[in-house]
Amino acid sequence: MKILVASHTYIVDLNCEKLRALAQLEPGIQIRVVVPKRWKPGGVQTKIVETQYRDEGALKIVPIANFSQNHQGLLTFGADLISQMHQFRPQIIQVEQGSRSLAYTQMIILNQLLGIKAKNIFFTWWNLPYTLKFPVSLLEKYNLHHSHGIIAGNQDGAEILGDRGYQGKIKVMPQLGVDEKLFTPKSQPELAAKLGIYQGEFVVGFVGRFVPEKGLLTLLQALIGLRDYPWKLLLLGRGELRDILVKIIEENNLQERVIMVESVPHNQVPNYINLMSTLVLPSETTSKVKTLTSVGWKEQFGHVLIEAMACQVPVIGSNSGEIPHVIGDAGLIFPEGDIQALANCILQLRQNPDLAQRLGVMGYKTAMRKYTNTALAKQQLEFYQELSP
């Protein structure tokens, strides 16, 4: 099976692990990944990334000249894409830039003009209802009409596409898996000592952006309500809420209980997760986040949840977006923004070590069964096979 994948996501080598696993599942699988030659990620990353060709046998990463260096929807590729598609002649074309992607439209048209007859698939994370104006509405309608299958990163996204008229096959699965060799249960005595965490202490953890929609203020208020119980809070990340968090911590004399660590390299994140007694993702749906075509945000997946589950750390999550579907019965769920309910979840794990251990084991089994790169690669291949004649 020849598979052509296009996305700026695979500029980052670490993000290619699922595709490497896919390439090894069966003899004869060949994967060619088209990535932009130049890309500016944005956020804390200010440099333009220059991508390089990589040949790993069954998997090849091919940089293609691109238009738009920092907008997913406007990304399109140069004329060298034509020769790549003509020479490779894939059976599956998967573009991971959303339903309104010009790059996806470009691939659909080239698929037709070159007579390749590949199955067209796109991936999307978007999980909130939206309205589109002409000509973007026409673009999406064209893309949906010519799609043989869709992979949605969450259940809400799949339902929205159905509401927008798509009646074909949809697979719900995240874009990227967890590396079980990196995210694995492992004692971290040296790091614990460095951070002032002592054996037996109950450590509540958070990993992610310090922004309002991630629910950090709710988490902090829940812990303030539990100040009569011993706990420590380990915050790993950065963002606009940092100064506000520091102010609240100082006003409540919690400086000795809160450990704040700036974002660290991804391969060091599991070391910090393994210090946690529980990881909390208290995300909150908001209408304050705006894009060109929609208003609002809710948690699209919560990748840190499966990283914690792979480390056998019990998880607590709000009911925002995809979180309840990711956790299932392998953790605790509370209504988003409910300070007391979150405090009760934390207290439940602190006072019941057997429950915490049981949920940790269940989470680990879920992560290994559903969310490793190999597990996702198998799900993706099965979906491709469903679409093939």
Q: If you had to describe this structure to a student in words, what would you say it looks like?
A:
β11 (149-152), α5 (155-163) and β12 (169-172) form a beta-alpha-beta unit. α1 crosses α14 (373-387), α12 (339-351) crosses α13 and α13 (353-371) packs across α14 (373-387). This protein folds into two domains: 2-176 and 373-387, 3-Layer(aba) Sandwich (Rossmann fold), CATH 3.40.50; 189-371, Rossmann fold (3-Layer(aba) Sandwich), CATH 3.40.50. 35% of the residues lie in helices and 22% in strands. It is built from 14 helices and 20 strands. The longest helix is centred in the last third of the chain and has 19 residues, at 353-371. It starts with a strand and ends with a helix. The strands form five sheets. An eight-stranded mixed beta sheet has the order 5-6-2-1-9-10-11-12, sandwiched between helices. The protein has a six-stranded parallel beta sheet with strand order 15-14-13-16-19-20, with helices on both faces. The protein has a two-stranded antiparallel ribbon with strand order 3-4. It is α/β, with parallel strands linked by helices and 389 residues long.
